[in-house]
C-alpha cells in the first residue's frame, strides 16, 4: 500500500473512526461496569453487614463482652447455619445448634470479610485477616453499622464491600473484564484494518482501471475502454469515461480524416490547374475563353474552399465575433430567397416562401444568419432535381424564431443523417466533388447556429426530400 494513496487514506480514516468509536465504547462500558459493580458490591456488602449484625448483637447480649468472639466464629464452621437471612430485625437471623457427632455439613465460604471494631478504631474481630490490613479511615468508619446493646454502642461492624473496597476475587473479576474489553478492542481494530484493506482494494479497483485508461488516452491511445460494471457512481463514471473515449476517438478520426480530406480537396483543383496551365504553356491547348473559364472555375472553387475553411475554423474555435443587431427574419428570408430565385428557376425548381405576418424580430448577426440560410438554400437547390420544389418558412415559436428549408430532393439516407453536420462529410447520395460542394457548408451552418445559441435539426427521406430547421433565440445570449 503506497503512502498517501487513496487506499491508505481510506484505511487510516476507517481505522481512526473505528479506533475512536471502539475506544470510547470500551472506556465507557468499562467505566460503567466498574461503577455498577462497585455500587452493587457496596450494596450487597451493606446487606451482608445488616444480616450479620444480629449475630454480633446476640453474642454481646449473651456474653456482655466481645471476649471469645474470635473463637465463636472459628467454631462456626462446625455448626449448622440455619434460617440465614430471613425475618431480619425481630428474632436473630441465625440459630446456632450444638454440633451433632456425625456433623458433616459444610459451611459455605463467607461471601464477604467482616470487621468489628470499637469507637477508637481498634479491630476486635476480623473474619479474614489473611486478606491484609484494612485502613479504618474516617470515611470507612462512617460507613460502618453500629452495634447497640441496651442503648449503648458496643462496637461497629463493616465488611470489605460495604466499606467501598473490592475483595481480591472481585478485583480479579474486574481485571478479567478489562482484559476481555481490551482483547475485543484489539481484535476489532485488527479486523477493521483487514476488512478495510480488502474493501478499499475492491472499491478502488475500478478507480485504478480508470486512471490507467486515462493515462493511456492522455498518451494518445484513444482505443482505451474500461471494463467496469459496478452498479454505483463508479459504474456511472466508467460509462461516462467510455463515452468520452468513444467521442475522443471519433474526434481524432475526424480530425485525421479532415486533414487528409482537405489535402485531397485542394489537390484535385490544383492538379487540374497545373495540367491546364502546362498544356497552355506547351501550346497543346489554346487559351480560348472556355479554357480560361474552366481555369477560373477551379480558382473560384479553391477560393470558396479556403474561405469556408477559414469561417469554419473561426466558428468552431469561438474566435468569431458576432455583431448582433435587431433583425427582421421575415425580410432577411425574403432577401435571401430572392438572391437564389434565379438559380432555382434555371434548374426548374419552384421556390416558395411562407412567413407569418407580424413580429419576426430577433437579435442576431445579420451576415452570419444570411450565410446559414444561404448555405441551406444552396444545398436544397443543389440536391433537388429539375421539377422539384423548395419551400422556405419563417415562424415564431415561443422565445425562438424558426426557419426551415424544405425540399423535394434526393434526400439523405438514415445512416448519413447523424453525420451531415460533420466537416467534409458527403452523403452516399452526393459523393463526388462535381455533384456536391466542399462538404463544409453544413458544418459552417452548425457552427454559426451554435454561436447564436440556436438549435438545428434535419429530417429526411431518401428520394422524397429533406427539411432543415434552425431556431434562433429572440434575445441574443452571451
Ligand atoms: P456540400 O458542400 O457537400 O453540400 P454540406 O456540408 O453542405 O456539404 O452537406 C453535407 C452533405 O449533406 C452533402 O454532401 C449532402 O450529401 C448532404 N446534404 C446536405 N443538404 C442536403 C439536401 N438538402 N438534400 C440532400 N442531401 C443534402
What do you see in this structure?
The structure is a single chain. The chain has helices spanning 6-63, 69-75, 138-142, 168-218, 233-281, 289-317, 329-346, 366-382, 414-417, 441-451, and strands at residues 114-117, 123-126, 145-149, 152-159, 324-328, 350-355, 361-365, 389-397, 400-407, 455-461, 465-473. It is an alpha+beta fold and 478 residues long. The chain is rod-shaped, with a radius of gyration of 52 Å. The protein binds adenosine-5'-diphosphate. Residues 379-380, 383, 407, 409-412, 420, 425-427, 429-430, 436-443, 466 line the site of adenosine-5'-diphosphate.
In short:
The protein is α+β, with helices and mostly antiparallel strands and 478 residues long. 52% of the residues lie in helices and 15% in strands. The site of adenosine-5'-diphosphate has 23 residues, from α8 and α10.
What labels describe this entry?
single chain, 478 residues, alpha+beta, five-stranded mixed beta sheet, four-stranded antiparallel beta sheet, 10 helices, 11 strands, binds adenosine-5'-diphosphate
Amino acid at each position: 500500500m503506497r503512502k498517501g494513496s487513496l487506499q491508505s487514506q481510506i484505511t487510516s480514516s476507517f481505522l481512526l473512526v473505528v479506533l475512536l468509536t471502539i475506544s470510547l465504547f470500551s472506556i465507557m462500558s468499562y467505566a460503567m461496569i466498574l461503577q455498577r459493580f462497585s455500587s452493587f458490591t457496596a450494596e450487597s456488602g451493606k446487606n451482608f453487614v445488616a444480616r450479620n449484625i444480629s449475630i454480633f448483637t446476640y453474642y454481646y447480649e449473651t456474653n456482655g463482652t466481645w471476649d471469645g468472639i474470635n473463637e465463636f466464629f472459628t467454631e462456626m464452621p462446625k455448626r449448622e447455619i440455619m434460617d440465614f437471612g430471613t425475618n431480619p430485625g425481630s428474632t436473630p437471623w441465625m440459630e446456632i445448634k450444638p454440633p451433632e457427632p456425625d456433623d458433616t455439613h459444610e459451611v459455605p465460604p463467607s461471601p464477604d470479610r467482616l470487621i468489628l471494631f470499637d469507637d477508637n478504631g481498634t479491630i476486635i474481630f476480623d473474619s479474614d485477616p489473611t486478606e491484609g490490613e484494612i485502613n479504618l479511615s474516617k470515611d470507612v468508619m462512617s460507613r460502618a453499622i453500629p452495634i447497640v446493646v441496651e442503648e449503648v454502642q458496643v462496637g461497629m461492624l463493616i465488611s470489605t464491600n460495604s466499606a467501598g473496597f473490592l475483595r481480591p476475587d472481585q478485583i480479579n473479576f474486574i481485571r478479567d473484564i478489562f482484559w476481555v474489553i481490551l482483547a475485543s478492542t484489539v481484535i476489532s481494530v485488527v479486523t477493521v484494518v483487514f476488512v478495510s484493506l480488502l474493501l478499499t482494494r475492491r472499491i478502488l479497483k475500478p478507480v485504478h482501471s480508470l486512471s490507467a485508461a486515462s493515462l493511456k488516452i492522455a498518451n494518445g491511445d484513444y482505443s482505451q475502454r474500461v471494463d467496469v460494471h459496478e452498479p454505483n457512481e463508479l459504474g456511472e463514471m466508467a460509462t461516462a469515461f467510455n463515452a468520452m473515449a468513444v467521442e475522443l476517438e471519433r474526434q481524432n478520426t475526424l480530425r485525421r480524416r479532415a486533414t487528409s480530406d482537405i489535402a485531397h480537396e485542394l489537390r484535385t483543383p490544383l492538379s487540374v490547374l497545373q495540367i491546364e496551365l502546362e498544356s497552355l504553356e506547351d501550346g497543346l491547348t489554346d487559351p480560348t475563353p472556355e479554357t480560361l473559364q474552366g481555369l477560373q472555375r477551379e480558382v473560384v472553387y479553391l477560393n470558396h474552399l479556403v474561405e469556408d475553411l477559414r469561417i469554419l475554423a473561426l466558428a468552431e474555435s469561438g474566435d468569431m465575433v458576432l455583431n448582433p443587431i435587431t433583425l427582421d427574419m421575415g425580410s432577411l428570408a425574403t432577401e435571401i430567397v430572392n438572391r437564389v430565385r434565379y438559380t432555382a428557376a434555371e434548374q426548374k425548381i419552384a421556390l416558395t416562401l411562407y412567413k407569418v405576418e407580424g413580429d419576426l424580430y430577433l437579435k442576431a448577426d445579420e451576415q452570419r444568419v444570411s450565410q446559414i440560410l444561404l448555405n441551406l438554400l444552396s444545398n436544397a437547390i443543389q440536391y433537388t432535381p429539375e421539377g422539384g420544389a423548395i419551400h422556405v418558412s419563417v415562424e415564431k415559436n415561443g422565445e425562438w424564431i424558426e426557419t426551415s428549408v424544405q425540399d423535394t430532393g434526393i434526400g439523405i439516407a438514415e445512416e448519413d443523417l447523424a453525420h451531415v453536420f460533420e466537416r467534409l462529410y458527403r452523403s452516399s447520395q452526393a459523393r463526388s466533388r462535381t455533384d456536391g460542394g466542399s462538404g463544409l457548408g453544413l458544418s459552417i451552418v452548425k457552427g454559426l447556429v451554435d454561436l447564436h445559441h440556436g438549435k438545428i435539426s434535419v429530417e429526411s427521406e431518401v428520394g422524397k426530400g429533406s427539411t432543415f430547421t434552425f431556431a434562433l433565440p429572440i434575445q441574443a445570449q452571451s
